Amino acid sequence: MDKIPILRMGAFLLVTIQVDLYDRLALNLESDLVNMVNKTSAKGVLIDISAVSIVDSFMGRIIGNIASMSKILDAETVVVGMQPAVAITLIELGLPLKGVHTALDMEKGMSLLKSMMDSDDPDEQETADDTITE
Amino acid sequence: MALKTYKLLQNKKKNILELWMKNQLADEGLREDLISNDELRSQSEELITALVSNLSDENFNDLNSDEWSPVLEILGGIAITRARQGFSPRETGNFVFSLKEALLQVLQEELKGDQQAFFNESAKINRLMDNLSVITFETFIKGREEVILRQTDEIAEISTPVIRVWDGILALPIIGTLDSARTQVVMENLLQEIVETGSSIAILDISGVPAVDSLVAQHLIKTVSATRLMGAECIISGIRPEIAQTVVHLGIDLSNIVTKATLASALAHAFKIMRLEVKKSTIIKS
Q1: Which of A118, B56, B139, B148 could be stapled to B76 by a disulfide with Cβ–Cβ 3.0 to 4.6 Å?
Q2: Where along the chain is composition biased (Acidic residues) (chain A) (predicted)?
Q3: Is A90 left (phi over 0), alpha (psi -120 to 50) or beta?
């Protein structure tokens, strides 16, 4: 039985989906991930789906579910590296994945999560904004 | 009788061609600018040769028989070339109609004394030539449709450029009506470009879209949502006052989408998101 590894990196959990998801695998991932969030009290979940080329409505729902469940457990979910075809398919299926954060790649996803954690402290965010200018 | 007719036509081929050419050249609608007389003559000769040599008693009124296929091929070829060259339907039709006239003229000469026979034979020829004209028109229209289809494809290709206005900012000016097929092309191009350039902001400029109805708005919302799923942000700019009015009157909810009046303000917004600043420099560099 395949298993998708969940890596821990500081306060975040990293999931890289390297195979095409089938239903059983996706359901296992959902429960594993939620358990892991609970165990490690992670603040953020990064799901890399850059290698996923096929999605259906079920998969879209699972991703939405993972985000909602993590949210309840106080962790933000960021989906990164979605393929254009996958994005179009999800939109055509009527699944805009509300409540899920997205980023172009792992690096941008990571900085998005970091900035979200920082924004818990609004004053700090303000000062950071001012100092970084080009 | 029928035997006589096709034999007669075969014997009189030269006469028919001359008469036909005369008819065609006498026609006011002759397009000397599009086709030279020599070319017209060779086209006519080719067609009439194929016509009389394939004519026989059995197939006179059966255009589906195999013997007719060379004639139909030639006729179709001529009709399609004419469609592409920009002939009008009337001019193309006259090509076949003038042949009918020539055939009837020759027939009249030959069957001068026999009214009944002339009537019978001309009825046959009429039927045959009418069938041929219908085929000409069908092919002509098909040729025109191909031209239109090709142009539509070309317009769709040309009219969806994705421009890199800044490092990490893409702009996509949409010109012309947005229908489902075009939205698909726009969306695919945009998403592909986002992946390739790693841009995090896309600006959709709709100042060239003549009207926005609920369907177009739906397409825009889809594109924005797809961009968001990819992890980039999408700004819609170039909303004219009339479009703002229609959108509100139609009750379309665009509150989840960042909208700006001009491309400039969209770009300024993008700079703000990326924490970039545009400054006027104090020193003038020469």
Answers
A1: B139
A2: 118-134
A3: alpha
pLDDT 10s digits, B215-251: 888 888 888 989 998 889 999 998 888 888 888 888 8
Domain span at A61: 6-131
Q: Can you give the pLDDT at residue A125?
A: 43
In this structure, what token pair is assigned to residue B278?
Answer: 């545009």
Q: Can you say whether the dihedral through the CA atoms of B52, B54, B55, B56 is positive or negative? A: positive
Closest Cα in chain A, distance from residue B195 (Å): 7
Q: Is any Cβ of chain B less than 8 angstroms from the Cβ of A60? A: no
Give, for all 134 residues of chain A, the pLDDT tens digit. Answer: 678 889 988 889 999 988 878 888 888 888 999 898 888 888 899 999 888 888 888 888 888 888 888 888 888 899 998 888 888 888 888 888 877 889 998 888 999 888 888 876 554 444 444 444 44
What element of type H or E holds A102?
A: strand A101-103
Q: Quick check: A84 and B228 CB within 8 A? A: no
Q: According to CATH, what is the number of the domain B163-273?
A: 3.30.750.24
- Domain count for chain A, please give it: 1
Q: Which residues contact B125 (CB under 8 A, 6 or more apart)?
A: B5, B100, B103, B104, B107
Domain B2-154 architecture: Orthogonal Bundle (1.10)
CA B218 to chain centre: 28
Would you call B275 and A80 a contact, using CB atoms and an 8 Å cutoff? no
**Per-residue model confidence as pLDDT tens digits over B67-86:** 778 888 888 888 888 888 88
Percent of chain B with pLDDT over 70: 93
Q: Tell whether A113 is covered by a domain.
A: yes
ipTM of the complex: 0.72
Residue spans of the domains in chain B: they are 2-154, 163-273
Residue A1 lies inside a defined structural domain of this protein = no
On whether any CB of chain B is under 8 Å from the CB of A97, the answer is yes
Region of residue A80 (phi > 0: left; psi between -120 and 50: alpha; otherwise: beta): beta
B residues 130..189 contacting A (CB < 8 A): 184, 187-188
Question: Which of B185, B230, B271 should be substituted to probe chain A, the one whose Cβ sees the most A Cβ atoms within 10 Å?
Answer: B230
Contact criterion met (CB < 8 Å) for A84 and B195? yes
Q: Does A127 touch chain B (CB under 8 A)?
A: no
